[in-house]
Amino acid sequence: MIEVNHLTKRYGNHCAVDDISFTVEDGCIYGLLGPNGAGKSTTMNVITGYLSATSGTVKIDGHDIMEEPREAKSCIGYLPEQPPLYTDMTVREYLMFVAELKGVRPKAARLESIERASGRTGLESMQNRLIRNLSKGYRQRVGVAATLLGDPKIIILDEPTVGLDPAQMIEIRSLIHDLGKTHTVILSSHILSEVQAVCDQVLIIAHGKLVAQGTPEELAGRLAAQGVIAATALGGRDAVVAAAESVDGLTNVQITAEKGDEVSFTASSAAGSDLRAALSKALADAGCPLLSLSSQTMSLEDVFLQLTENTDMAGTEGSGKEAPTDSTEDTASTAEEAVPSSAPESPAEAEQPQAQAPDADAPAEAADTSADAAADGKEGE
Ligand SMILES: Nc1ncnc2c1ncn2[C@@H]1O[C@H](COP(=O)(O)OP(=O)(O)OP(=O)(O)O)[C@@H](O)[C@H]1O
């Protein structure tokens, strides 16, 4: 339903999205996962026609987002990271306003659409409440309800749980899960556990590149299938690394610590292979006696960190990745902290249009961002 082909987006000299291609099939929940600054919002803004691509194409249901924007946008309900809500309106007024902007006609259809959207998002009893008096969780529901107006097939949510407390996060995740039964949903998140819990398919983005894609189980399986050896040997750094790298099947040798002549390192091994004996022999042959050796399994969190760190800017090599932690550890609770904010701010930032409308004070922008803009240019009733 959505085909993204060789999508690149530059802000001045800064490449925020670098030649990304992927396909989104109908009826699944997709998660764009990546650290802050990875390029998730930019990707979403291009998919929704908010920003133009520097190169590459995006097709929604066969319609090119640049060439047939109205047809393409009519398939999408988009909730930006900063929901464009008018906090002086009641929930009902706001939803009516958005429905009108989206060209939902006649009035009876608008009312029906609002009722359905309110029902899906649990807002029935909040209709006459001013948005500014709602909790952040309920405001987010209003934003999600707005995306549903006009019955788009695809719902795109940029960091929908950011700033929510744990209970609100759980509610919004459950709402997204429910939406996935009737819609294709794409959400972005920097929280590994969230994407794992909610999404059918995960796209991991780091530094503007798509570094991995699969179901959470596939990714976890791929990672779990990868063994990690952690070892300490006596000898020079270069000799130890060369010996480790000479072992067939051992890859990604990373120094984790150096103390005097003791060099600690980790290395990855292919699925199912136990390379400890081969490593021990290679080190002995190189005159680097082995002091300790252990074999570990990578957790999904370790894999995610490795994938996102490995695409880090050139020159960070040898920064000393910590040895992976015990894979049996529950990673969910630590995943959020573990994902670093890694991309630098672009110097070109100021030059570029802001993709997301501010909270309440910019009606025109808010209207535009509030969704599909499907009805852009359509005359009123
Ligand atoms: N309007 C802009 N002008 C210049 N640079 C920008 C602009 N918007 C984003 N960037 C830069 O592009 C990169 C990708 O930003 P983007 O917002 O897409 O990342 P993200 O993964 O959504 O991160 P976050 O979760 O922090 O929003 C970052 O380095 C960011 O500083």
Automatic annotation (TrEMBL):
PROSITE patterns: ABC_TRANSPORTER_2. It comes from the Bacteria. It comes from Gemmiger gallinarum. It holds the Pfam family ABC_tran. SMART domains: AAA. PANTHER family: ABC TRANSPORTER, ATP-BINDING PROTEIN (PTHR43335:SF4). Keywords: ATP-binding, Nucleotide-binding, Transport. SUPFAM superfamilies: P-loop containing nucleoside triphosphate hydrolases (SSF52540). Residues 331-374 have a biased composition (Low complexity). This is ABC transporter ATP-binding protein. GO terms for molecular function: ATP binding. Residues 312-381 are annotated as: Disordered. Residues 2-232 form the ABC transporter domain. Belongs to the ABC transporter superfamily.
